């Protein structure tokens, strides 16, 4: 089974900061990597799929990069709406393993 | 409007059974794979089970293999999860999710809560 490891688990940052979250796969997954944002009491929301393709309506301050086993999610300038938990996931058409999550907190 | 609505959650004793259902609307159901993802209170996301567009390919997490059974009815635009031999650690919010290789786990329901407790 493919394992997904995110770092850090928690990130404290200020408004306007550039934030980077890393995700590592235990084996090569090509670009089959997605990023989700989840706020308390809400279902996760897909931000990025195929490692770097931004979902419609997602602000351009979010970006994804990487391939193979190493991936990053970057928020170029942290906004109040961005404080949430972020998950990476390797996926196919009907399965997928999630990372353990990164909580982005206000510093 | 694309929508997934889960039902069937509740409180059950350890060893008991529940059947979750998900009603899909607003899209061509048999164009997509479907999955169940759960989240225990205060914990992260865990993929539970998934089924491809025609039911020909199915997968389960190791933690539920042999106890849970996923199925779909394309004529009724519905997804199901039969959960048997439930354990305390199955307690979670269960999400129904539309999935595809094209764009990941793109559409999520609001979830149905399963509590396993004596």
Features:
heterodimer, A: mainly beta, 0% helix, B: 118 residues, mainly beta, 7-stranded mixed β-sheet
Question: Could you characterize the architecture of this molecule?
Answer:
The complex is a heterodimer of chains A (107) and B (118). Chain A is built from no helices and eleven strands. Chain A has strands spanning 4-7, 10-13, 19-25, 33-38, 45-49, 53-54, 62-67, 70-75, 85-91, 96-98, 102-106. In chain A, the strands form two sheets. In chain A, strands 2, 4, 5, 6, 9, 10 and 11 form a seven-stranded mixed beta sheet that branches. A four-stranded antiparallel beta sheet of chain A has the order 1-3-8-7, with no helix packed on it. Chain A is globular, with a radius of gyration of 13 Å. With 118 residues, chain B is an all-beta fold. Chain B is built from no helices and eleven strands. Chain B has strands at 3-7, 10-12, 18-25, 33-39, 45-51, 58-60, 68-73, 78-83, 92-100, 104-108, 112-116. In chain B, strand 4 and strand 5 form a beta hairpin. The N and C termini of chain B lie far apart (40 Å). The model of chain B has no long low-confidence stretch (mean pLDDT 97). At the A-B interface, strand 4, strand 5, strand 9 and strand 10 of A face strand 4, strand 5, strand 9 and strand 10 of B.
